[in-house]
Amino acid sequence: MLVNADLHIHSKYSMATSPKMDLPTLASESRKKGIQLVATGDCLHPKWLAEIKNLEEQNGVFKHNDTYFVLTTEVEDANQVHHLLIVPSVSKAEELYEFMKPRSNNIDSDGRPGVKLNGEEIAQAAHDAGALVGPAHAFTPWTAMYAYHNSLKECYGALAGRIYFLELGLSADTSYADRIAELQCLTFLTNSDAHSPYVNKLAREFNRFEMENISFDELKMAIIREKGRKPVLNVGIPPEEGKYNESACIRCYKHYTFRESIIKSWKCSCGGTIKKGVKDRVNELASFDMPKHPAHRPPYLHLIPLSEIIAMALGIGTGTKSVQGIWNTLIERYGTEVSVLVDADIKNSGVDACVINAIIALRCGKVKMHPGGGGQYGRIELSAKPEKNNNCEPQKSLLDF
């Protein structure tokens, strides 16, 4: 069976998250997006784990109506690098909590705790608990593995060989990461890292796996690529839309080339710091001029959240009632956001023609990207209006993968 999974989110117990990040809301919103398996996030937080325990447990996953949850957590190591852990059971989450509590000042107050451990020590603890571990948003300049290390071995030491996945993050995609030779054997994950259940955050990136059923063991085999289980698709926003795609000032957001940044000693004319972008960092690390995709690497499908397309078409904010109303209308008619974006014939959907044209333009690739940088998201605009009798070849349906 094919399973859509978002494996990195946060709960209401993490800093700077929505109080609506509760299990019932996450389940209902995931279902609308077309996601069957979603991360719990923050499974080391005692109060959140207590809420998770109230759900029906089946083979290492937890069920709320038709949505399944898998235990996950993100931790920050002593070097400010973030790691994503996928945990097999409540008892193993509790073991990890007991191990990390003496080494953390905030494990009881923040769902994403900082721990006084390095990457190798975290990987060893995860391995001992039967959990999977890998770099979270691996290229993000503030808290990523490649922000502070030049290799997996430098980060994870002797445990580097037991790292099976890497999370790309919003500012990178497969074409970026597959220029780095040491990542050829890893599975790439595309997750939302959502801090709110709003329609443009949750599952803005997700993975599609081939699994026999929804369970921890099946997910683990799919990530490790064993016994025919495997990832078959990565879905994510265009990397240019990420907040750190290009090098830019964190104060005024002026963009700089890599050469300009070096000449200016990474100081903007306004006095702010120029933060190195993912594109430039990948160029530093790259083994290949062009990406070399290994045989196991699935396709990468670029999608923009439906609410962003509606807002762009109407020239209003994503959080407005008009955008929410049109989004609800389309979801009620076609079932999930994924269906609206790539599968359904939306020409007679009954919503504003500008919205229909914008979705068609996205399917035809007629969008223009203004890359993000310095902490500011990139901007998308329609580069051309679709013709009434548009004969362009749309991007493939999810059903084609």
Can you walk me through this structure?
Helix 11 (306-314) packs across helix 14 (353-363). Strands 3-4-5-2-1-11-12-15 form an eight-stranded mixed β-sheet. It has a three-stranded antiparallel β-sheet with strand order 6-7-8, with helices on one face. The chain has helices at 23-33, 46-52, 90-100, 119-128, 145-148, 152-156, 174-177, 216-224, 258-263, 278-285, 306-314, 321-334, 337-343, 353-363, and strands spanning 2-6, 37-39, 56-58, 61-64, 67-70, 72-76, 82-86, 132-135, 165-167, 187-189, 206-210, 230-236, 248-249, 274-275, 300-302, 367-370, 379-382. The radius of gyration is 21 Å and the shape is globular. Helices cover 29% and strands 16% of the residues. Residues 386-394 have low confidence and may be disordered. The protein has three domains: 2-237, Alpha-Beta Barrel (TIM Barrel); 241-274, no CATH class; 306-400, no CATH class. With 401 residues, the chain is an alpha/beta fold.
Summarize the structure.
It is built from 14 helices and 17 strands.
Question: What layout of secondary structure does this protein have?
Answer:
Elements: E1 2-6, H1 23-33, E2 37-39, H2 46-52, E3 56-58, E4 61-64, E5 67-70, E6 72-76, E7 82-86, H3 90-100, H4 119-128, E8 132-135, H5 145-148, H6 152-156, E9 165-167, H7 174-177, E10 187-189, E11 206-210, H8 216-224, E12 230-236, E13 248-249, H9 258-263, E14 274-275, H10 278-285, E15 300-302, H11 306-314, H12 321-334, H13 337-343, H14 353-363, E16 367-370, E17 379-382
Helix pairs in contact: 11-12, 11-14
